[in-house]
Request: fold
Amino acid sequence: MSAGTGAKKTPMNDRQAYAILEAVNAATLAIAAEVSPERVLLTIVEQARKLANARYAALGIGWDPTRTFHPWVFSGMSEAEARLLPHFPRPVGLLGAVVREGHAIRLRDISKDPRFHGFPPHHPKMTSFMGVPIRYKDETIGNLYLTEKIGAEEFSEEDERAVKMLAAHAAIAYRQAQLYEQLQVERARLETVFENSPAAIVFVEATTDRVYENKAAETLFGLPLRPDIGRQQYLGLIRSPDGVPLSLEDLPSSRALRGEVVIGAELVVRSAEGRDVPVLVNAAPVRGGDGTVTGAVTILQDITPLKLERLREEFISAVSHDLRTPIGVISGFGDLLGRWMSKEGAPENEKRAVEAIKTSARRLNRMVQDLLDASRLEAHRLTLEKQAVDVAALVREVVDRLGTVLAPHPVRVEAPEAMPPVMADPGRIEQVLTNLLTNAAKYSGPESEILVRAQARPKEVVVAVTDHGPGIPPEDIPKLFTRFYRTEAARAASPEGLGIGLYISRGLIEAHGGRIWVESEPGKGSTFCFTLPVQ
Ligand code: ADP
Reply:
């Protein structure tokens, strides 16, 4: 091994070359043994001290004079001696000079150098000094310091060369150890995410076909898969929505291994217990640094709740559509029958029977309409036919139209002659008003007054429907506008009602950009309010 080219430089002797090798080996071993970057630096510092025959050695990573070196490792000083020192040093004074100047400094007596600012109290006496910068990729990242040469007055040029060589290795070793540590941290983080993810995750290694799965995947498949058997074991477990098992080539992981990205495939997992679980599957290839596919990651999400919701929606809209035709026939013939009877002068009880048929058909129709509206709102398929609407006029019209339905409740309307127009679907606003007014009538004493107020505010109009019924307990209020919710009292007072009128009203008002809410005092009554924005 040759240690330099300068004419003045003496070649490195065997002892030094051997010591360097030993030092580098120790550092490499430290990395291989997965120790911390600090531990690697400590090995280097100890080897440097031995190499240059120094009493003390220290190594600090850092270049910012406002911050202490971090890490700062030292050798030769006892723990007790070190504890007496106030804090780790900063790259200032002589220690800073090595970093700043970027070259080695060798001194026979530190105290004679103008760059030396003195030792802190309790610091051991030090005279000879050698500082060597630690460089990584053209940047000085810290220094290696040696003091108190044993057996000589100062450090030699050979010492400097040997320690410089060691410093070069120190930089690489430290960086490697740091990267390794970062890698470990990242890996641990990834493992935590992988293990605890609520979605089932399966990783397949390309070269070995080994599979790794997380806890959620184990639960989904109903058995722990064996890493060594590979994708083979999914045969029969993963199926198309109609129940046909996927072939090995069609498995999402196989497609990903071929470089394909699989997004949102709807499949079925038949678990080991024979349970079918609908899943949404995404799979993607995992590529190495050179772009080759090294593995495939597959994520499976149980979509049972989504499926149920979709089924429910399909059921409601199919049933509602199918019911409308027979209801239409019943009310049509009910009307016809009613007209015949009044012509023929039929007995009163028969007329009442026909009226009952007509009223029931109307109520049935209303319920079916409500179910349809609810499913349209949920599917965002409800369209509004907006036009300029005078809400005050609309309120009066609706109250008039509902006359007999609201009787025997006296209804008072407080609304200005005219109001600033709002852009709204009048049919839908009428539906909301009808719901609030019929509720007020349904849930309050027969003779009690219902008050409807319409008011214009700077940016919106507000409509309030007040009744003097039993009011609503505060704990029910947040649930009132959710679908199918009815209070205990309502169920007892009136068996009729699906509990979706307010839910639809909220959907309709919010679709108009307005708000709907209730203010209620149990025992005194309730006021339902809604707003519509003025354009
Ligand atoms: P429905 O009247 O068909 O039950 P709604 O969605 O219109 O459905 O109302 C939901 C629930 O809110 C009612 O069941 C009742 O418990 C309560 N509610 C609505 N309006 C009033 C009111 N004016 N006074 C007291 N409770 C009311």
Observations:
- The CA atoms of residues 346 and 467 lie 40 Å apart.
- The first strand starts at residue 54 and ends at 61.
- Residues 304-344 form the longest helix (41 residues).
